[in-house]
Design goal:
The complex is a heterodimer of chains A (307) and B (322).
Chain A: H1 2-29, H2 43-52, H3 59-71, H4 86-121, H5 126-140, H6 143-157, H7 171-201, H8 204-211, H9 216-254, H10 259-269, H11 272-300
Helix pairs in contact in A: 1-11, 4-5, 4-7, 4-9, 4-11, 5-7, 6-7, 6-9, 7-9, 8-9, 9-10, 9-11, 10-11
Chain B: E1 4-15, E2 18-30, E3 35-39, H1 46-53, E4 61-69, E5 72-73, H2 79-85, E6 90-93, H3 97-100, H4 107-119, H5 123-136, H6 142-145, H7 155-167, E7 173-177, H8 185-202, E8 205-210, H9 213-219, E9 222-227, E10 230-236, H10 237-242, H11 247-254, H12 263-266, H13 295-299, E11 305-307, E12 310-312
Parallel strand pairs in B: 3-8, 3-9, 6-7, 7-8
Antiparallel strand pairs in B: 1-2, 1-4, 4-5, 9-10, 10-12, 11-12
The chains are: A mainly alpha (307), B alpha/beta (322).
Protein name (chain B): ABC transporter ATP-binding protein
Organism (chain B): Stenotrophobium rhamnosiphilum
Domain ABC transporter (chain B): 6-253
Chain lengths: 307, 322
C-alpha cells in the first residue's frame, strides 16, 4: 500500500515537470513583458529592473535558475507586487479559494448525488424529468453567464445577498460564488449518479438482495449506493480541475481575493513568476486530488485495492 | 395439501416494441418435500415463472393468475408482507454466482444481513450462525471465509455461498434457477449433490429450473416441460424421460448428444427457431416446428389432458391413446 502510494507520487514528478516547462516557455512566448505597463520608465531603469529579475539572461539560463529555486520550494518574487513573494501570495490567497472551492465541491457531491439518486429511483417520472432538465440547463450555462444572472436576481432585484466582495468569508458573501461555482458540477454529478444508479439497480446482485427479502432502503443504501458512487468518484478528479478553472472566473466576477484572481491579474500583467507559481500549485493540487480519488476507489471497491 | 399451487399464471411485459408474453396460462403444483424440474430452452419462460412467484419481475411486467403458497396468494400480498416471504419462506439461488453476489460487500455481511433483517438478530449472532451455515454447505474455513469478498472465492464456492444464503432462514421452498449452468462440469456435480443432500437435511421443497435434461434426471421427482411460455408436458421425471408423449419433449430428448454419437453428423436438432414472444400466438407455440402439426394446431392451443399423474397439451397425441 505504502509502496503503491510512493510510486504514484513519484510518477507525478514528470507530469509536473512537463507542466512547468510548457507554462514557462508559453508564458515567455506571449508578447510583452512584466514592465511594459509601467509609465515613464527610462531605458536605464528598465535595464536595471530586468537585471534585478534576471530577465536579461538567456531563456534557458532563466529556466534553469527557476528550476533550481523551485527545487528548494521557492516560487520567486512577484514582478508586480514588488515586495511580496509568490509563496506569500499563494499562502494568503489559497485559504480563500479553498473555502469557496471546497464548499462548492461538497455541495456538488451532496446535492448532485442526492438529486441523481432520487431521479434514478423515480426513473421516467415527473421528478426524474424535472431533475434532468435542470441538470441539462446547469451544464449548458457557463458560470460567467450564471454568476451575473444570479447577482441580478438575488443581489440587485431581491436584495437578499451582497453582489460581491469577500467580507472575511461571511456566509452571505459565500452563497452566490459557491452556487455559481458548484452549479455545473451539481448538474454533471446528478446526471452521472442517476445513470450509474439505474445501471446498478439492474445488476444481478441487486436482484439477489431483493430475493433475500431485504427492504428497499437496505437494498439501495447497502447494496446499490457504493457501486453507484464509483463513476461519481472518478469524476471528482476532473471536477476538482473544473472548480479550479471556474474559481478563476468566479473570483474575478465576485471580487474575491483568492489565488484565482491573482492568476488573472498576473496573466494580464505578464507577472511570470505568479503565473508559474499558481499553475504549479494548481497542478500539484489536481494531482493530489486524483491520487486521493484512487485511494478512495480502493476503499469503495475491494477489487480495485492494490495488491 | 400442496405447498405451492400456481394457477393460470401469465406474465407479460410492456415494451417499446409491444407486449412481450413470457408466460401464458401456466398451472402446476408442488407438494411438500417434492422436487419439481422446470425444463425448457432459453426464452421458454421458466426463469420468468420463478421471478413471478417471488414477485421480482421488472417494473413493466404484468402478472395474472394465482400463486398459492401455503394457501396464501403471493400475488395479492402487500409489498411489506412479500418481504417476509422472500428469503425467509422461499429462498432463491441464481444462475451465475459470479454476478449474483455483491462484489463490494464481504461474504459475511451478505449472509448475516438476511438474519439481521428477518430475525432481528445482532450482527455478531448472525455472523456466528452464518458461519455454521457455511459449514453445512461444506465451505472449508467458514469463519475466515466470512471476511472475504466474492472475487476471492471460486465459482463453485460462490454458488455454495449463494445456497447457504438462501437457506439461512430455513425456507420451506428453494427455487434454483439454473444453479449449475455457469459452473465447470465437475463442480456442477458437486453442487447438485449438495442440493440433494440439503433437500433431505432441511426437508426442502425444490424447484429446479434447468435446460439440462441430465441435471433434471438426477435430482427431480417431477418435471414440467415448457415451450414458448406454456406447459407442454408434465409428469414424473422418469416416465417423462423414458416415455415422452409430447412431440416437443420427444424431440428434446432425441436431440441429446450421446458419447457413441458423431455429433457433427448424427446429432438430431429441432428444425426452426423458438417463436418470437412478441407475436400473438393463438395455437400451439411448437406447431411451426412440429412434425405432427396439422391446421388446428396453429389455430387453437390444445388443453392440458390429464391422465395417471401425467399431463400433456397436444392435439396430435393423447396420453390415453398411447
Amino acid at each position: 500500500m505504502l509502496r503503491y502510494a510512493f510510486i504514484r507520487l513519484l510518477s507525478a514528478i514528470p507530469a509536473l515537470l512537463i507542466l512547468i516547462t510548457l507554462t514557462f516557455f508559453m508564458m515567455r512566448a506571449a508578447p510583452g513583458g512584466p514592465f511594459d505597463r509601467e509609465r515613464d520608465v527610462s531605458p536605464e531603469v528598465r535595464a536595471k529592473l530586468e537585471q534585478a529579475y534576471h530577465l536579461d539572461e538567456s531563456l534557458w539560463k532563466q529556466y534553469g535558475r527557476y528550476l533550481t529555486a523551485l527545487s528548494q520550494g521557492d516560487l520567486g518574487p512577484s514582478f508586480k507586487y514588488g515586495d511580496r513573494s509568490v509563496n506569500e501570495l499563494i499562502a494568503v490567497g489559497f485559504p480563500v479559494s479553498l473555502k469557496i472551492g471546497g464548499l462548492a465541491m461538497l455541495l456538488a457531491l451532496l446535492l448532485g448525488g442526492a438529486l441523481g439518486i432520487v431521479a434514478a429511483l423515480k426513473q421516467n417520472g415527473v421528478i426524474d424529468y424535472g431533475v434532468m432538465t435542470l441538470a441539462m440547463v446547469g451544464i449548458s450555462i457557463p458560470n460567467y453567464v450564471f454568476a451575473p444572472l444570479a447577482i441580478l436576481l438575488f443581489a440587485v432585484t431581491l436584495g437578499w445577498l451582497p453582489a460581491g466582495g469577500w467580507n472575511d468569508g461571511a456566509l452571505s458573501n459565500l452563497v452566490l460564488p459557491v452556487l455559481a461555482l458548484a452549479a455545473p458540477q451539481v448538474a454533471y454529478i446528478a446526471r452521472l449518479m442517476r445513470g450509474s444508479m439505474i445501471e446498478v439497480l439492474h445488476a444481478p446482485y441487486i436482484r439477489t438482495a431483493r430475493a433475500k427479502g431485504l427492504s428497499e432502503r437496505v437494498v439501495i443504501l447497502r447494496h446499490a449506493l457504493r457501486p453507484a458512487l464509483l463513476p461519481v468518484l472518478s469524476y471528482l478528479g476532473p471536477a476538482s480541475a473544473g472548480i479550479i478553472t471556474g474559481s478563476v472566473v468566479i473570483e474575478q466576477i465576485f471580487g474575491i481575493p483568492g489565488i484565482g484572481r491573482y492568476f488573472v491579474t498576473a496573466a494580464l500583467n505578464r507577472d511570470y513568476t505568479v503565473v508559474m507559481g499558481v499553475v504549479i500549485f494548481y497542478g500539484v493540487l489536481v494531482i493530489l486530488f486524483n491520487f486521493l480519488v484512487d485511494l478512495l476507489y480502493g476503499v469503495l471497491d475491494p477489487r480495485a485495492r492494490p495488491q | 395439501m400442496s405447498l405451492l399451487n400456481v394457477r393460470n399464471l401469465s406474465v407479460s411485459f410492456n415494451t417499446a416494441d409491444g407486449v412481450v408474453r413470457a408466460v401464458t396460462d401456466l398451472s402446476f403444483t408442488l407438494a411438500t418435500g417434492e422436487t419439481l424440474g422446470i425444463v425448457g430452452e432459453s426464452g421458454s419462460g421458466k426463469s420468468q415463472t420463478a421471478m413471478a412467484i417471488l414477485r421480482l419481475l421488472a417494473r413493466n411486467a404484468a402478472v395474472d393468475g394465482e400463486v398459492l403458497f401455503d394457501g396464501q396468494d403471493l400475488l395479492r400480498l402487500s409489498a411489506q408482507d412479500m418481504l417476509k416471504v422472500r428469503g425467509q419462506r422461499i429462498g432463491m439461488i441464481f444462475q451465475d454466482p459470479m454476478t449474483a453476489l455483491n462484489p463490494h460487500l464481504r461474504i459475511g455481511t451478505q449472509l448475516a444481513e438476511v438474519l439481521v433483517s428477518h430475525r432481528g438478530q445482532s450482527w455478531q449472532q448472525a455472523m456466528a450462525e452464518s458461519a455454521r451455515m457455511m459449514q453445512a454447505v461444506h465451505i472449508p474455513d467458514a469463519t475466515a471465509r466470512l471476511q472475504h469478498y466474492p472475487h476471492e472465492l471460486s465459482g463453485g464456492q460462490r454458488q455454495r455461498v449463494m445456497i447457504a444464503m438462501a437457506l439461512l432462514c430455513r425456507p420451506q421452498l428453494l427455487i434454483a434457477d439454473e444453479p449449475t449452468t455457469a459452473l465447470d462440469v465437475t463442480v456442477q456435480a458437486q453442487i447438485l449433490r449438495l442440493l440433494v443432500e440439503l433437500r433431505r437435511e432441511f426437508g426442502l421443497s425444490l424447484i429446479l429450473i434447468t435446460h439440462d435434461l441430465g441435471v433434471m434426471a438426477e435430482v427431480c421427482d417431477r418435471s414440467l416441460v415448457m415451450y414458448g411460455g406454456r406447459a407442454m408436458e408434465q409428469g414424473p421425471c422418469r416416465a417423462l424421460l423414458t416415455d415422452p408423449v409430447h412431440p416437443y419433449t420427444r424431440a428434446l430428448i432425441a436431440s441429446r448428444p450421446r458419447l457413441d454419437m458423431d455429433v457433427e453428423r448424427d446429432l438430431p436438432v429441432i428444425a426452426g427457431a423458438p417463436p418470437s414472444p412478441i407475436e400473438r400466438i393463438f395455437g400451439c407455440p411448437f406447431a411451426p416446428r412440429c412434425e405432427l402439426a396439422f391446421d388446428r394446431c396453429n389455430r387453437q392451443m390444445p388443453d392440458l389432458e390429464t391422465s395417471a399423474g401425467r399431463q400433456c397439451a397436444c392435439h396430435a397425441v393423447s396420453l390415453c391413446k398411447k
